[in-house]
Design goal:
ABC_transporter-like_CS, binds adenosine-5'-triphosphate, about 625 residues, three-stranded antiparallel beta sheet, Type_1_exporter, Rossmann fold, alpha/beta, ATP-binding, transmembrane, 23 helices, ATPase-coupled lipid transmembrane transporter activity
Length: about 625
């Protein structure tokens, strides 16, 4: 056998074994019942064939067992559809559990690396989204239906095979080869059709889809009508579509040839079997009873033949289950879900902790230019530090390294003496609110109290008021100047912060930022020792940001805090200000020290101040409206 065929056979076996192992893992009892029902479908068909043969024989002999075989025939006829109907409801249960398992396995893989490189890398991210699209699409949702239909019909085919083999093993084998040949070649053809029609993401197809959808869009549709572009768009769509279809037609006709050849060969082989059986019956070497059995057997053997979309979908089901396994293996994860004892462990609150960057070098995997070549920064426990610097100098990158989202190429990053890139306990000491913080579609209480809820996720839920995070959330929200958020939801902590839900509501950008800051404050209660704000207030005006930052510094006194902002007036109250330049830390000191020393900071401050003017009776700067 050629090596390629052996390779395909081995891969097919590996996929099958893995698929059934995961099905069993998701729903062991239902799978066992499903297998029993599949067997019953085959038994029902076999009984129908066998009993009808015996009945014909008894009728011919005029012997006395006619009623017995008639009853058995009736049982056989009833058994197959009944088992098929029960199987359908069992398969629905298996699908539900199987889908849940798949979704959890993929989510677990996405969360496995602490870093986010795999979500930023286009190739790795595409792999996740391809699997996600499949799981959400109609093929993923109907996978079990296809797979169990194929094995259900397969069981009927086996019954047909047994019936024909009673007369001639050779005939049974020839018919089997004929049906399998058509199944394999037609499935390959349908696979090409499906890929081209549903899954093809080629540039031409995407352009054609875009042009087709343009007149249907509200914004685009308006302009298209105003400019009278409809005829041009339709003609362009037709051209792009026709060009995109050239390749599709070529692939189709290439795949159609073996499918047609397979069908013709199968027809010849099957015709030979029928002729053979007819000849034996005609010559008297085969009884009428056997002829009845063989003819039915040949018909039912088609269950092992082509089943159209079921075959194609069943292949996809196994392919994607295997993709999930390979994805997990690439992140060092086992095929099934594992209990991570670390992930729910409560981090003891040890108070403020120190942060150390020593001779850190870092280059993004997708870039040639390093962001840092030898960065040194030491923040003692309890100090508040502001990181400032021009756009692109590496402020956010520094925070990502601190959170362990990327490992340093050389040098060391330490939080409380531990490496956040590898040590979960160090990572959980850092609570960060990024500019693009998450606006969870959860209740206000959950949005604020998430750090507490996550820290207690492993513990038994407390039945009394002691387990209620609302008082802590309320304190944090007030400390973050978010009293108006409570007013917005009418004091109801159970309001979902998304208008798409019943009774849900939307917050303004500023209100969301206060919720995020309250969340950061609660992280301290949950064990964090360093608080980081990476410009979450950038959308606010200067005065509002300055107010939030000084309030934040006030309520976090004694906690190690790192603030990143472009606005120097916002961070001037930090204990220490660090100016980053392309060569690393270029200035380091308090606001007054840096202003007096007359370096980059003083220059930046002067530049910003020239765009501001002092508000009367206020020592902060406000933007001059132009
Ligand atoms: N995921 C990434 N992949 C590749 N390069 C990146 C990535 N993120 C940032 N960079 C690049 O790294 C450099 C530092 O970016 P970073 O976002 O840390 O700067 P920043 O000082 O925070 O900038 P800003 O003030 O504009 O927010 C920039 O040149 C940026 O283009």
């Amino acid at each position: 056998m050629p090596q390629a065929v052996v390779g395909r056979l081995m891969r097919w076996t590996r996929w099958q074994l893995h698929f059934w192992r995961m099905t069993w893992h998701a729903a062991p009892w239902l799978t066992a019942v499903g297998v029993l029902l599949v067997v019953l479908r085959g038994v029902g068909v076999w009984l129908t064939i066998y009993a009808s043969g015996r009945l014909v024989q008894q009728l011919g002999d005029r012997s006395g067992d006619v009623w017995v075989w008639l009853a058995l025939l009736g049982m056989g006829i009833a058994l197959e559809p009944l088992a098929a109907a029960w199987l359908e409801s069992v398969v629905a249960g298996i699908q539900e559990r199987f889908s849940r398992q798949q979704v959890l396995l993929v989510a677990d893989a996405a969360l496995a690396p602490h870093g986010i490189e795999h979500l930023e890398n286009p190739e790795k991210a595409a792999r996740f989204s391809d699997i996600e699209d499949y799981l959400r699409g109609m093929f993923g949702v109907n996978a079990m239906n296809a797979v169990w239909s194929v094995i259900g019909y397969g069981s009927i085919g086996v019954a047909g095979f047994v019936a024909v083999a009673q007369w001639s093993w050779w005939a049974a084998l020839i018919a089997l080869v004929a049906y399998r040949a058509t199944a394999v070649t037609w499935t390959a053809y349908l696979d090409v059709l499906l890929r081209d029609l549903v899954e093809d993401g080629s540039l031409g197809r995407r352009q054609a889809d875009y042009l087709r959808s343009l007149p249907l869009e509200r914004a685009g549709g308006k302009e298209i009508r105003l400019f009278g572009l409809t005829p041009w768009i339709l003609r362009r769509y037709h051209e792009v579509w026709a060009a995109a279809f050239v390749g599709i037609w070529q692939r189709r006709s290439k795949a159609l040839r073996p499918a047609l050849a397979g069908s013709v060969a199968a027809m010849v082989l099957l015709a030979a079997c029928y002729v053979w059986a007819g000849r034996d019956a005609w010559s008297g070497t085969m009884s009428a009873a056997t002829l009845v059995v063989v003819m039915q057997g040949l018909v039912q053997l088609a269950g092992l033949g082509p089943l159209g979309d079921y075959n194609v979908q069943a292949i996809r089901a196994r392919f994607y289950e295997n993709e999930i396994r390979e994805l997990r293996t690439s992140y060092g994860l086992p095929p099934t879900l594992h209990d991570d004892p670390d992930s729910t462990a409560v981090v003891p609150a040890t108070g403020a902790v120190a942060v150390d960057f020593t001779d850190v070098g870092f280059t993004y995997p997708s870039r040639a230019e390093p962001v840092f070549t030898g960065l040194d920064l030491h923040v003692p426990a309890g100090q508040s530090v502001a990181i400032v610097g021009v756009n692109g100098v590496g402020k956010s990158t520094l925070i990502k390294l601190l959170c362990g989202l990327y490992p340093a190429d050389h040098g060391t990053v330490r939080v409380d003496g531990r490496d956040p890139a590898t040590d979960e306990a160090a990572r959980r000491k850092v609570a960060t609110i990024f500019q693009e913080f998450v606006r969870y579609h959860l209740t206000l209480r959950e949005n604020v109290a998430l750090p507490l809820l996550a820290a207690n996720a492993g513990a038994e839920p407390a039945a009394d008021a002691a387990g209620d995070p609302t008082p802590a959330a309320d304190r944090a929200l007030h400390a973050a100047a978010g009293a108006d958020v409570l007013g917005r939801v009418g004091g109801d902590w159970d309001t979902i912060l998304e208008p798409g839900y019943d009774g849900g509501t939307e917050l303004s950008g500023g209100q969301w930022q206060r919720v995020a800051i309250a969340r950061a404050l609660l992280a301290v209660d949950a064990g964090a020792g360093v608080l980081v704000l990476d410009e979450p207030t950038a959308a606010l005006d200067v005065r509002a940001e300055a107010e939030i930052f000084s309030r934040f510094l006030e309520v976090t006194r004694g906690v190690t805090t790192i603030l990143v902002s472009h606005r120097l007036s916002s961070v001037r109250h930090a204990d220490r200000i660090v100016v980053l330049g392309p060569e690393g830390v270029v200035q380091d000191g308090s606001h007054d020290e840096l202003l007096n020393s007359g370096g980059a900071y003083a220059e930046m401050f002067r530049l910003q101040a020239s765009r501001f003017e002092k508000a009367s009776g206020d020592d902060e700067f406000v933007e001059v409206s132009s």
